[in-house]
């Protein structure tokens, strides 16, 4: 039924959205007490009215992430041909669980996302989830995601407990990702720093801080040198990293200890990664394109909580050439994920 779903308007479906979240209700039931959304609802500084409003919004967001019909209607309205479905790690990250329990939840998530893709294979492709705290299990589940379930790769958080994603102990996972040609989408599971708790700054500031640390970890710890064939996309335009490269480049040039695992300047590593357009400000998007190149930028909405008109955001970017705009809307994602949406 959903496979033949057609847009109800004359909007042309020309874009691929690489930042679209899914929640598996039974998995979220287990992970919710450990999520930052639940902590926000329990913030003692809030009034009862404010707490109720936050809880109502959170519940509505979860419902939308689980409702396929609502998702396709939103895609049609925005002109999106294909969504890359990824688990919402802010809601259902499993890195706090023992390895076997984490793997069980991740497998449930992956089976559910594969089933969603099967309901509308011309509209969806999927990314799974892995228990990154145990790299061997993560590598094995990544192989199942790609080889058995037909997913394009996995989404991972920006850190695993106290370990950054460039940690040497995680190299079995990165080796498997490179060998399989899997896409690894890096998206924060939230930042629990108490300084970011007030005013939900864990979301407004913390997510971008996390993405910045993740990119730094990948080049400072030598992951991008050890596995140059990796296919990595960073959420939210790469956080703050692409916008403060001058000081990082200075440290690389002046402080030898900072480059002991690096063979090239930081800017070169930034151009080995991909980034989505979910930055909400055309000036930020312009700078991102200037730093990493239009061929490294992919449309991303952060469905259902982000930009409701991500296609219009890119089409209105007057600093892009026609070819660059086409690449950002669909061409780059088509190449990275192996998606064909036709002419």
Structure description:
There is one protein chain. By secondary structure, this protein is α/β, with parallel strands linked by helices. Helix content is 47%, strand content 13%. The strands form 2 sheets. It has an 8-stranded parallel β-sheet. A two-stranded antiparallel sheet has the order 5-6. It is globular, with a radius of gyration of 19 Å. Mean pLDDT is 92; it is low at 1-10.
Features:
single chain; 343 residues; alpha/beta; eight-stranded parallel β-sheet; two-stranded antiparallel ribbon; 16 helices; 47% helix; globular; disordered N terminus
Return the structural class. Answer: alpha/beta
Helix content range of the residues, please? Answer: 40-55%
The number of distinct β-strands equals 10
Distance between the termini: 23 Å
User: Which stretches are low in confidence, meaning pLDDT under 50 for 5 or more residues running?
Assistant: 1-10
Order of strands, main sheet, comes to: 1-2-3-4-7-8-9-10
Task: Estimate the mean pLDDT confidence.
Answer: 92
State the helix count: 16
| Oligomeric composition of the shown chains | single chain
The main sheet comes to: 8 strands, parallel
Radius of gyration from CA coordinates: 19 Å
* Helix and strand sequence: EHHHHEHHEHEEEHEHHHEHHEHEHH
Broad shape = globular
Q: Strand share of the residues?
A: 5-15%
What's the short story on this structure?
Helix 6 packs parallel to helix 7 (135-147) and helix 7 packs parallel to helix 8. The protein has helices at residues 25-31, 36-41, 48-66, 68-78, 89-92, 99-119, 135-147, 171-180, 201-204, 206-220, 223-226, 245-254, 266-270, 282-292, 310-315, 322-337, and strands at residues 15-22, 80-87, 124-129, 153-156, 159-160, 163-164, 183-186, 231-234, 274-276, 297-298. 47% of the residues lie in helices and 13% in strands.
